[in-house]
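Format notes (please read before filing issues)

Several people have asked whether sequences and structure tokens are stored in separate files. They are not. Every record keeps both together, in the order shown below: the sequence lines, then the token lines. Line labels are part of the format and must not be stripped during preprocessing.
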Amino acid sequence: MNLHLSGHHLELTPAIRDYLTSKLDRVKRHFDDVIDINVILSLERGQRRAEASIHVRGKDLFAESQDPDMYAAIDALVDKLDRQIVKHKEKRSGGRNDGGLRHSSQE
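Then the structure lines:
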């Protein structure tokens, strides 16, 4: 997995880098086929903005979030990415098997 971090109008401190990489491990835990992750952290009009694009086998996923606190923006971003990854994984595996009754012919 390649991870590219960049900051616009914002310095990426080691604390933010470590926090972001630890949070993105959650995404990697759900889906091993992550090829590339690009994350841009920026400061716009008093709001902290986090956006990420993930390239997985067969699809590109994108999410963004805004919050006055950068750590909260990163948390929201990772939550959105996590939901998208799980949804993509379920589609790829053919959906869930929830153990429901199947239609069968009765004699």
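For reference, the curators noted about this record: The mean pLDDT is 84. The beta strands are 2-8, 34-44, 47-56, 59-67.
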